[in-house]
């Protein structure tokens, strides 16, 4: 067999194996037995071993490859990954339908699917080959988890057939663990004395965060594709049709998908799955209702948080009964005081629950919740379950009423409750509980992303008076840190480096990190885009905010109140002097290099090579050091080396530094 014949043979085998993978992992209808399959696979492996330069990343033998990663790259989503509005109320589903029909001025067709409780991911294909996969992250930026996603057998590394409109598509889906895979995984962890996962979704999320793809491959992850964020081409005007086409093209699309021509049909679907979902192999917590036509979606548009053309309906939560042992009171970073129920641990929808929120003093009184009561707890969409009522029939007379504390349990100052508010607050700006909360929020991943500034260290630093406000985080030194208990020199240095690096975070993250009440990531994004600088925001009046869509009165008042405080203004001034970004730098990165491999040769004039490589990564590409058949582009500086000749020989596209810069500027075409 010569090389040309070998290549043909390899191509045939790959096609054959891909087809069988699809029938086995996606359709669940294998066409051949395991033995025959193994023979095909082995034949391919042997041939590839003999002709290693014919190995390509989309070969079925290459699913699990590569070395463990040091960390995940961050990528920017080409279309924001928003979460959907969700509701437990059938009335709100009706309201949604009314709104949609009113805005479109006609009847609509909905696409309805089950809502699988998993982890959302985005997959990018180039020329029908899987190139890049990412987590949702904060909706704007996600982690590049391509290597981990490749291990999921139902994910096609190459599409089965060529469809020009689908070849360069982005699809989104849900990675999940089946109920069985979850039980098996926990059983195995129990044997090894490792902590158990609370539920299948946590287990899937934890698995995707592993840096070693070989470990991921053993966990049994699976995935469903449910979303195509952009109309792929003129042929596909219905989202449903697009998914069906993807389904025949190798993808495992979300099962039981349906087009509903009326709201009645939607409710039939809701009823059908209310109990039937328990028999499915995967966890389903509701369903998703979307307007089907891409064009109509475009007309409906988005709110600041979610698309106007979709809503998730969640089945009402499950409940459990357990005994209330005590009530403790927590102080949040905004000074809000929340009573928390400490419970006799009980299993609820697959998770052990030991704490539940009681919201506030009025709620406790209204529900007449007493210590030692048997209480009904419920888990809704929130992470923390809540106490919804008391089983009064089980009272024995030993129950005691709870007295809400008058003083802050942390700093001892008197608590304050404003007439129009339900919550008690600690208004002591130097209250350690608030400082701790503020620092943890500031250091969190979505904000300044400071690694190593965790709960116990922040506790120590605040309690010992070393850090009294956000800006003092930047005064920490490795020497001071190394004095702390359990802190080695190495981790102290790492933390200092991470603090230093956080100074580069864009204004949007800094603003969010300040922890102004009611300013979440979305609001922060909008404020930064609209005002551009902290000075403009701090001077803005009510009418300035009211002009901005997505910024309501509550947010506006919050900001105005925040800047009234001299202490807050001082902290910002200090942070500004330290060098944090308080001005918006407009740089919209796009992922136009997604899946592309670039190599540099020669001396670049305008930037260091490391910076050029960072630019490539920022736009989704992969810088490599050597030219091979996998190279998409060679960027050629002055005095190029041997890579130039090799690229020429292999027919790799070569561009100059100037063209490279132009490409970065234009976000695509050189
Ligand atoms: Zn306090």
UniProtKB/TrEMBL annotation:
- UniProt binding sites for Zn(2+): 408, 411, 426, 431
Is DNA damage tagged as a keyword? yes
Q: Which domain of life is it from?
A: Bacteria
Q: Name one Pfam family in it.
A: BRCT
Catalytic residues, per the record, are 115 (n6-amp-lysine intermediate)
Example GO BP: DNA replication
The kind of enzyme this is, by top-level EC class, is: ligase
| CDD domains for this protein | BRCT_DNA_ligase_like (cd17748), LIGANc (cd00114)
Please list the residue ranges annotated as the BRCT domain: 588-670
GO cellular component entries:
cytosol
User: Which E.C. number(s) belong to this protein?
Assistant: 6.5.1.2
Instruction: Please tell me where NAD(+) binds in this chain.
Output: 34-38, 83-84, 136, 174, 290, 314
What are the protein's GO molecular function terms? dioxygenase activity; DNA ligase (NAD+) activity; metal ion binding
Reaction equations catalysed = NAD(+) + (deoxyribonucleotide)n-3'-hydroxyl + 5'-phospho-(deoxyribonucleotide)m = (deoxyribonucleotide)n+m + AMP + beta-nicotinamide D-nucleotide
SUPFAM superfamilies with a match to the protein in the record = BRCT domain, DNA ligase/mRNA capping enzyme, catalytic domain, Nucleic acid-binding proteins, RuvA domain 2-like
Name the needed cofactors.
Mg(2+); Mn(2+)
- Which keywords appear in this protein's UniProt record, sorted alphabetically? Dioxygenase, DNA damage, DNA repair, DNA replication, Ligase, Magnesium, Manganese, Metal-binding, NAD, Oxidoreductase, Zinc
Q: According to its UniProt entry, what is the function of this protein? A: DNA ligase that catalyzes the formation of phosphodiester linkages between 5'-phosphoryl and 3'-hydroxyl groups in double-stranded DNA using NAD as a coenzyme and as the energy source for the reaction. It is essential for DNA replication and repair of damaged DNA.
Q: Which HAMAP family match?
A: DNA_ligase_A (MF_01588)
Q: What is this protein called?
A: DNA ligase
Question: What organism is listed for this UniProt entry?
Answer: candidate division WOR_3 bacterium SM23_60
């Amino acid at each position: 067999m010569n090389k040309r014949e070998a290549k043909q043979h390899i191509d045939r085998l790959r096609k054959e194996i891909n087809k069988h993978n699809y029938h086995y992992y996606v359709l669940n209808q294998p066409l051949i037995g395991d033995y025959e399959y193994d023979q095909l696979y082995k034949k391919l492996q042997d041939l590839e071993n003999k002709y290693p330069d014919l190995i390509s990343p989309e070969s079925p033998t290459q699913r699990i490859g590569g070395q463990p990663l040091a960390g995940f790259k961050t990528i920017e989503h080409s279309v924001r990954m928003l979460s959907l509005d969700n509701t437990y109320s059938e009335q709100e589903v009706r309201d949604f339908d009314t709104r949609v029909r009113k805005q479109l001025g006609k009847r609509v067709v909905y696409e309805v699917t089950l809502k699988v409780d998993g982890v959302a991911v985005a997959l990018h294909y180039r020329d029908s080959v899987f190139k890049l996969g990412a987590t949702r992250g904060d909706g704007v930026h996600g982690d590049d988890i391509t290597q981990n996603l490749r291990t999921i057998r139902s994910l096609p590394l190459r599409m089965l057939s060529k469809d020009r409109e689908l070849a360069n598509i982005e699809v989104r889906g849900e990675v999940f663990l089946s109920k069985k895979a979850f039980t098996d995984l926990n059983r195995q962890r129990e044997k090894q004395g490792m902590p158990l996962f609370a539920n299948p979704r946590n287990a899937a999320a934890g698995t995707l965060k592993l840096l070693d793809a070989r470990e991921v491959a053993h966990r049994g992850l699976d995935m469903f594709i449910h979303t195509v964020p952009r109309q792929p081409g003129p042929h596909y005007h219905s989202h449903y049709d697009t998914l069906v086409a993807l389904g025949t093209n190798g993808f495992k699309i979300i099962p039981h998908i349906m087009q509903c021509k009326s709201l009645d049909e939607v409710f039939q679907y809701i009823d059908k799955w209310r109990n039937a979902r328990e028999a499915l192999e995967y966890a389903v917590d509701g369903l998703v209702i979307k307007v089907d036509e891409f064009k109509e979606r475009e007309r409906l548009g988005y709110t600041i948080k979610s698309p106007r053309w979709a809503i998730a309906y969640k089945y009402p939560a499950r409940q459990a009964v357990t005994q209330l042992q005590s009530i403790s009171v927590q102080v949040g970073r905004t000074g809000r005081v929340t009573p928390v129920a400490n419970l006799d641990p009980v299993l609820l929808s697959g998770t052990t629950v030991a704490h539940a929120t009681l919201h506030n003093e009025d709620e406790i009184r209204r529900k007449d919740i007493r210590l030692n009561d048997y209480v009904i707890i419920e888990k809704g969409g929130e992470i923390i379950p809540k106490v919804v009522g008391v089983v009064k029939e089980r009272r024995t007379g030993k129950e005691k009423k709870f007295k809400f504390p008058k003083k802050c349990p942390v700093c001892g100052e008197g608590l304050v409750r404003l007439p129009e508010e339900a919550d008690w607050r600690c208004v002591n700006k130097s209250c350690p509980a608030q400082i701790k909360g503020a620092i943890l929020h500031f250091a969190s991943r979505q904000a300044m992303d400071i690694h190593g500034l965790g709960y116990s260290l922040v506790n120590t630093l605040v309690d010992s008076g070393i850090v009294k406000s956000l800006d003092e985080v930047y005064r920490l030194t490795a020497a001071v840190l190394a004095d702390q208990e359990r802190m080695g020199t190495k981790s102290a240095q790492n933390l200092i480096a991470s603090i230093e690096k956080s100074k580069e975070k864009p204004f949007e993250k800094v603003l969010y990190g300040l922890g102004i009440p009611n300013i979440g990531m979305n609001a922060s994004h909008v404020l930064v885009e609209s005002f551009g600088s902290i000075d403009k925001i701090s001077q803005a009046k009510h009418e300035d905010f009211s002009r901005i869509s997505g910024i309501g009165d509550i947010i506006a008042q919050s900001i105005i109140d925040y800047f009234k405080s001299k202490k807050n203004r001082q902290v910002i001034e200090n942070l500004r002097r330290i060098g944090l970004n308080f001005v918006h730098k407009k740089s919209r990165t796009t992922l136009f290099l997604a899946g592309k491999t670039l190599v540099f040769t020669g001396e670049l004039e305008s930037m260091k090579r490391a910076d050029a490589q960072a630019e490539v990564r920022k736009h989704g590409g992969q810088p490599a050091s050597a030219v091979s058949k996998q190279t998409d582009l060679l960027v050629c500086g002055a005095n190029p080396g041997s890579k130039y000749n090799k690229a020429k020989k292999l027919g790799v596209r070569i561009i100059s530094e100037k063209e490279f810069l132009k490409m970065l500027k234009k976000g695509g075409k050189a």
